[in-house]
Amino acid sequence: MSSERAIKTEKALAVLDLVYISIGAALIAICSWISIPTAVPFTFQTFAVFFVLMLLGGEKGTISILVYILIGAAGAPVFSGFGAGIGVLLGSTGGYILGFLFIGLIYILFTKFFGKKIAVKVAALILGLVVCYTFGTAWFMHVYIKNSGSVGLLTVLGWCVFPFIVPDLAKMALAVFIARRIEPVMKSRQM
């Protein structure tokens, strides 16, 4: 009887994981539509990426990011500005979207090897963001040069990275703060 109960519990947790992953992907999509109009408009997409990783953990959070990207690639308007399709991913800013996966992978590695203390998680998010910026910038330059001609690295950084550093760090701090408040509630519900 107890092994049957264990199997039911495992199945319930697996279903709950799928629900959390789906909600994580939906949250990233919704946050990508929220745009703050400033001199350089930005979305809450990175907030959702940070939040999902903090709340769901590296594996489930990264799967949420992958699901989000695949849904957008399939044609659902989940990218910023209600963009959709493989063309967005192959476009000049597609590298930044694909770079979200690097944030997740680095988060997985850091928490696996260095533990799950808050300092480790934040360091993983910061390093992941740097890798995302690096990959996205290289991608942007490749596509831009192919389509429009030569462009300098500092110019691209001025367009695509420098204006977003402070907002992204603020979104990271907000994601960490909110996730740490919600995490105990989620853990108590799973027991």
Written description of the protein model:
By secondary structure, the chain is mainly alpha-helical. The chain has a single domain, classed as Arp2/3 complex 21 kDa subunit ARPC3. 81% of the residues lie in helices and 2% in strands. The chain is built from eight helices and two strands, in the order αββααααααα. It has helices at 2-33, 45-56, 58-73, 86-90, 94-114, 118-148, 153-160, 162-190; strands spanning 35-36, 42-43. The chain has a two-stranded antiparallel sheet with strand order 1-2. α2 runs antiparallel to α3 (58-73), α2 packs parallel to α8 and α6 packs across α7 (153-160). The longest helix has 32 residues, at 2-33. The chain is globular, with a radius of gyration of 18 Å. 34% of the residues are buried.
Short description:
The protein is 81% helix and 2% strand. With 191 residues, it is mainly alpha-helical. Strand 1 (35-36) and strand 2 form a beta hairpin.
Order of helices and strands: HEEHHHHHHH
Major β-sheet profile:
2 strands, antiparallel
The stretches of 5 or more residues where confidence is low (pLDDT under 50) are none
Mean pLDDT: 92
Q: How does the helix and strand content classify structurally?
A: mainly alpha
* Terminal residue distance: 20 Å
Can you list the strand order of the major beta sheet?
A: 1-2
CATH class equals Mainly Alpha
- Provide the helix percentage: over 70%
Fraction of residues in β-strands? under 5%
The CATH topology: Arp2/3 complex 21 kDa subunit ARPC3
Q: Count every helix, treating DSSP H or I runs of 4 or more residues as helices.
A: 8
How many domains make up the 3D coordinates? 1
Overall CATH architecture? Orthogonal Bundle
- The count of β-strands is 2
In one word, what is the shape?
globular
- Supply Rg: 18 Å
